[in-house]
Design brief:
The complex is a heterodimer of chains A (about 325) and B (about 325). By secondary structure, chain A is mainly α. Chain A has 13 helices and 4 strands. Chain A has a single domain (about 15-30, about 35-310), classed as ABC transporter involved in vitamin B12 uptake, BtuC (Orthogonal Bundle), CATH 1.10.3470. Chain A starts with a helix and ends with a helix. Chain B is about 80% helix and about 0% strand. In chain B, a hairpin with a 2-residue loop joins strand 1 and strand 2. Classes of the chains: A mainly alpha (about 325), B mainly alpha (about 325).
C-alpha cells in the first residue's frame, strides 16, 4: 500500500467523520427541542457513559471488521465474562481477582474464535455465530437461573464511580480511543490489519503473517468484550445469564454507522466512537420521549440495515470514480 | 511373508476406508448418536420416544429445508428464528381476535413472505452480505414480536389450533404429514424445476447466470421468500404445539437449522449440497437434544453440545476433503 493511498484515505476519512459529527449534533439539537430533560448535565453524562460501554465492545469489534471478518459472539462473550467475573468477585471479595477473571474469560473466548477462523479456516461469521450460542448455553448453565448481585464499592467504581464529576467509564472511553487510534494508525501491526482487510492475498504475498494477525484481532475483540463486561457489571451491580444479549445489534450498528466497512480495510476507531454516540443518542431520545423499550431491537435492526446500506452506496460511488 | 501379510492387511484397510468414505459423515454421526443413546438410556429406543423425536423435529425441518436452499446460494438467513417467532405471535393474536384458522394462517404466511421478500431484496438487489442483512431483519422481527405482545404470552387461542398438534390425516399424525409434505415440495423445487437449477448456479457462479440472460434477482429473491413462507407455515405447528404465542418462542432456532444443514454436508462456500443430508442433519440434532433430555442434561448445555456437533461435522468434512 503506498503513501498516497494512505493520505487519500485519511483525508476522505476526515470528511466522513465530519459528516457523522454533524449527524450527532443534529440529533442532539432535535432532542433538546423535543425534550426538556435532554440537555441537562446529568443526562449528557448518562449518554456519554452508555456510549462508553458500547464503544468499548465496538472498538474491539472494529478491528475484526477491518480485516473483513465479523465477531457475532462479542455480546455473548461479554455476558459469560460478566457472569464468571461476578461469581469470582463474590467468592474472593477481591476486585483485582474479579477484573482479571473477567478479562481472562473474554481473552480466552476471543482466542478460541481466532483459532476457529485461522486454524480451522471457518468463515468468521459462522464460527462466531456458533460461538455465540455455545457461550449463551454456557452462561445459562453456569448461572442456573440465579442472579448474582451486590459487589464491593471498590469494584463498582469502574462502572459507577466519578472523578472530578465525570463518570469513570468516560475516561476509559478516551483512554481506549487513544490506544486504539495509536494502534491502528501508528503501528505496523495496525497498518497490517488494514492491509489484510483491503486485500488478504496481497497482504500474504507481501509477507504479512495474516493468520497470526487475525488471531490477534479476534483475541483483542474478546479482551475488549471482557473489559466492557466489567464496566457493565460494575454499573448494574448484578449479573444474569442473559446480561449481554441486547448488546449485539447495537455493537454492530455502532461500527457500521461509524463507517467501518464489512468488506474490510475501511473504518476507524474514532468513527466507531461517533457511531456509538449516534446510537446511544437515538436510544436515549426514545427513552426520554417515553417510547417503549420493546422498540429497541426494531430500531437497532433498522439502523444496522441503514449502516450497511450507506456502506454499499459509498463503495459503489468509490468504484465508479476509479 | 510378513510383508505380504502386511500389504494385504493394508489393502483391506484401504478398501474399508474407501468404502467408509463413500458413506456421508452425517449418517455415521446419526448412527453413532442412536447407538450411544440407545445404550445409555432405557427410554430412548422406545417407539413412543422415536415418534416423539420425529414430531419435535418437524418444525426444525421446515426451517432447515429452505435454509439449505439459502446456503446453497451462498447465503445465510439468521432471521428465520425471529421471523418464525413473529409469525407465531401474529397467528396467535389473529386467533384471539377471532379471525379463524384460515385467516390466521394467511396472516402468518403474509408476514413470513414479506420478511422473505425484504431479505431477498437486501441480499440480491442491494447486494448486502446476507448474514448482516438478515441480522438487521432479525432485530426488526424480534422487535415487532415484542411490541405486538408487550413482552407477554398470547393465550386463549381456542380448540381448533390444538387439534392440529394431535390430529391425523389418513392415519398419519399431522406434524409428520407436514414434514413429509415439506420435504416433497422442497425436493421437487430443488431437483425438478428450473428454479432449483438456478439455486445451485447462484451459489456456484452467479455471473454466468447473469450473462446467460437469466433473471437472477427474481430467483435469488424467490429463495428467501420461500424460506419466509415456510417459516409462516411452520408457525402453525409451533402455535399448535404451544397453544400460545410468545415473543421468544423460536428465537435461536435458526442456529439448530444452520447446524443441521452444515452437519448434513451442505457447503457454505461452493454451492454444493444435498437436501436429504439436511433431513439426516435435522434428525441428528433432534436425536442429540432428545437423548440429552432423557439423560437429564439441561437445555443450556444441549446448545453447547450442538455447537460441538457442528464442529465435529465440519472437521470430518474438512478431513475428508484434504485426503
Amino acid at each position: 500500500m503506498n503513501v498516497l493511498d494512505l493520505r487519500h484515505r485519511a483525508s476522505t476519512g476526515a470528511i466522513a467523520l465530519g459528516y457523522r459529527l454533524i449527524v450527532v449534533i443534529a440529533i442532539g439539537v432535535a432532542l433538546s427541542f423535543a425534550s426538556d430533560a435532554f440537555l441537562t448535565p446529568t443526562n449528557i453524562l448518562n449518554v456519554l457513559r452508555q456510549a462508553a460501554l458500547l464503544f468499548l465492545i465496538a472498538s474491539g469489534l472494529t478491528l475484526v471488521i477491518l480485516t473483513a471478518g465479523l465477531d457475532l459472539s462479542v455480546a455473548a462473550n461479554l455476558g459469560l465474562a460478566a457472569c464468571v467475573a461476578a461469581s469470582a468477585l463474590k467468592a474472593t471479595g477481591s476486585p483485582v481477582v474479579g477484573v482479571l477473571t473477567g478479562i481472562a474469560c473474554g481473552v480466552g473466548v476471543g482466542f478460541a474464535n481466532g483459532l476457529l477462523v485461522t486454524a480451522l479456516r471457518l468463515p468468521p461469521f459462522i464460527a462466531t455465530y456458533g460461538m455465540l450460542w455455545v457461550l449463551h448455553g454456557l452462561s445459562y448453565y453456569y448461572m442456573a437461573g440465579e442472579t448474582i448481585y451486590g459487589f464491593s464499592p471498590g469494584f463498582r467504581e469502574i462502572g459507577s464511580g466519578y472523578l472530578v464529576g465525570v463518570p469513570i467509564p468516560i475516561y476509559l472511553m478516551f483512554v481506549f480511543l487513544a490506544i486504539g487510534w495509536f494502534f491502528t494508525q501508528r503501528t505496523t501491526w495496525g497498518q497490517e490489519i488494514y492491509a489484510i482487510g483491503a486485500n488478504p492475498v496481497a497482504a500474504r504475498l507481501s509477507g504479512i503473517p495474516v493468520q497470526r494477525r487475525l488471531l490477534l484481532v479476534y483475541t483483542l475483540s474478546g479482551g475488549m468484550a471482557g473489559l466492557a463486561a466489567l464496566v457493565y457489571l460494575a454499573r448494574l451491580n448484578s449479573a444474569e445469564a442473559d446480561i449481554g444479549e441486547p448488546l449485539l445489534l447495537p455493537a454492530i450498528a455502532a461500527c457500521l454507522i461509524g463507517g467501518a466497512s464489512l468488506f474490510g480495510g475501511v473504518g476507524t476507531i474514532s468513527g466507531t466512537l461517533i457511531g456509538a454516540l449516534i446510537l446511544t443518542l437515538v436510544l436515549n431520545g426514545m427513552n426520554l420521549l417515553e417510547v417503549s423499550a420493546n422498540w429497541q431491537p426494531f430500531v437497532t435492526g433498522a439502523i444496522v440495515l441503514a449502516g450497511v446500506g450507506i456502506d454499499m452506496l459509498t463503495r459503489r460511488r468509490a468504484e465508479e470514480k476509479h | 511373508m510378513h510383508d505380504a501379510m502386511a500389504s494385504i492387511a493394508d489393502a483391506r484397510g484401504q478398501n474399508f476406508a474407501a468404502r467408509l468414505r463413500g458413506v456421508p459423515g452425517v449418517a455415521i454421526i446419526l448412527v453413532l448418536l442412536v447407538v450411544v443413546f440407545g445404550l445409555t438410556s432405557r427410554h430412548f429406543a422406545s417407539e413412543a420416544n422415536l415418534l416423539n423425536v420425529a414430531m419435535q423435529t418437524t418444525i426444525l425441518l421446515m426451517i432447515a429445508l429452505p435454509m439449505t436452499l439459502v446456503i446453497l446460494s451462498e447465503g445465510l438467513d439468521i432471521s428465520l428464528g425471529a421471523v418464525l417467532t413473529l409469525c407465531n405471535v401474529v397467528l396467535a393474536l389473529m386467533l384471539v381476535r377471532g379471525a379463524g384458522l384460515a385467516g390466521a394462517l394467511a396472516a402468518s404466511l403474509v408476514v413470513g413472505g414479506a420478511f422473505g421478500l425484504a431479505n431477498g431484496a437486501l441480499v440480491s438487489l442491494a447486494k448486502m452480505p446476507p448474514f448482516v442483512a438478515t441480522l438487521g431483519t432479525l432485530g426488526i422481527a424480534q422487535g415487532l414480536a415484542l411490541v405486538l405482545t408487550d413482552g407477554q404470552s398470547v393465550v386463549g387461542l381456542g380448540d381448533a389450533i390444538e387439534s392440529i398438534a394431535s390430529g391425523r390425516v389418513l392415519g398419519v399424525p399431522i406434524p409428520l404429514a407436514f414434514a413429509i409434505g415439506s420435504y416433497g415440495l422442497t425436493h421437487w423445487l430443488l431437483y425438478h424445476t428450473r428454479f432449483g437449477t438456478y439455486v445451485f448456479a447462484i451459489g456456484g457462479n452467479r455471473e454466468a447466470l447473469v450473462l446467460a440472460g437469466v433473471r437472477v434477482n427474481l430467483h435469488h429473491i424467490g429463495i428467501y421468500v420461500f424460506a419466509g413462507l415456510m417459516a409462516g407455515l411452520a408457525a402453525l405447528l409451533l402455535t399448535a404445539r404451544m397453544s400460545s404465542g410468545h415473543p421468544t418462542a423460536a428465537i435461536g432456532m435458526e442456529f439448530d437449522a444452520i447446524v443441521a444443514v452444515a452437519v448434513g454436508g451442505t457447503s457454505f462456500e461452493r454451492g454444493e449440497g444435498w437436501l436429504f443430508g439436511t433431513v439426516l442433519g435435522v434428525l441428528a440434532v433432534g436425536v442429540l437434544r432428545n437423548g440429552l433430555n432423557l439423560l437429564g442434561v439441561p437445555s443450556s448445555l444441549q446448545v453447547v453440545s450442538i455447537g460441538v456437533l457442528v464442529m465435529v461435522a465440519l472437521l470430518i468434512d474438512g478431513f475428508r476433503k484434504r485426503r
